[in-house]
Amino acid sequence: MNEYDSNRIYDLTKKINYFPTDNFKEANCYILNTCHIREKATDKVYHDIGRVKKEFRNKEKPIVLIAGCVAQAEGDILLKREKYIDAVVGPQSYHQINETISKLEKKIRPINITDFNVIEKFDTLNSFKNTDNRISSFLTIQEGCDKFCKFCVVPYTRGSEYSRSIKELILEANQLVNNGAREINLIGQNVNAYNFEEKKLSDLILEISKIKNLKRIRYTTSHPRDFTEDLIEVHQKCKKLMPLIHLPVQSGSNKILDAMNRKHTVEDYYEIIKKLTKINPNIKFSSDFIIGYPGETRDDFKRTLELMINVGFINSFSFTFSPRPGTPAFNLDMIDENEAKKRLMEFQHTAEKIKAKYRKKLIKKTVKVLFENKMKNSNKYFGRDEYFNSVIVESNNDLTGKIINIKIVKGNQNTLFGEPISNIDQSKSNYAA
Ligand code: SF4
Fold first, then answer.
1. Residues lower than pLDDT 50 in the chain
2. Distance CA 74, CA 325 (A)
3. Ligand 1 pocket: which of 153, 223, 246 to mutate (most atoms <8 Å of CB)?
4. Which pTM does this prediction carry?
């Protein structure tokens, strides 16, 4: 979501003649768009500011603005501790960034804008075009969360659940496709809680799928509790919807899920997987896991491991529990750090084995790849298959924006390498979907 927000911030600041630069040394305004999900995010802010300070030691001070969830959660602390920061702007207030910069130009500082103005924010953002022109683009459809998992900062940094209107989303999706997008990833902290005037995520997917030049739709991140029958069915109805579902589960133990306030059980989770694979046997899953949550016993951990093996997630994101200030889990008694690390290693070893086995099976198989870009200084193209696997292919033809059948010839844990299954005749473009 920060990527989406950063792109919209670029669109905003262009209006006051502030343009992005790749040259760190020449910027006269630094906006650090931050994430607060993991610890060390704040340390990273101070570290990055240190770099700017060093660069500008004997020069005029640039404008330094912290945006995103660290600004929301720790705005006052940041301003107090690091005088080099001119302003903090929360994720629901960044539509006010131009006014903030204008004030800072007049040396009015420090500024702290961390209100929850989500309606005003999207009203402002809707008033001008989204200029993101990537082949695979993000589209924020929903923000915030009402679930209050005990470990999570999102309800405090992004606020309560808010869904954008179908009308504005269709308009923005069309803008992205007209800019060149062939894939749209619908995003929200609780994306399947999307609900605008009784229209749900499934309705939105079906509407967006009518856009002619849009070839692929994805959505992330879902919550098991909002995985309703209509959403399951749309995985059969909508051919543009990709068959990889990222469905965070966090733990395989009901005791821990309850302690986390996840509002679903392991049985609920298995039931969703069962229904989805019944309706579309090609569907595969990825997930998020927290290892070593307070109170997790060896037995609880074994259940998480069991879930990993039973579902066979083709990708997973796992971390040891990281207490976030301001969350109910912050003051809980941590389990032994070494034991948590040991469990994480064991878990990741199993996850990697499952992933490696899955990826080995892809060798010599043909997959459909949507190519996103040409790689720097080479004739290699980067794209993704339907399951979001990275694929690299050499070609003298421009593959950007095309969906092509690729035979996978080799791969490692992160990237697959392939070749087009026959010559690409661009004039006929018979491989493009
Ligand atoms: S459902 Fe997701 S975003 Fe909401 S509180 Fe839980 S982990 Fe955070």
1. 425-433
2. 9
3. 223
4. 0.93
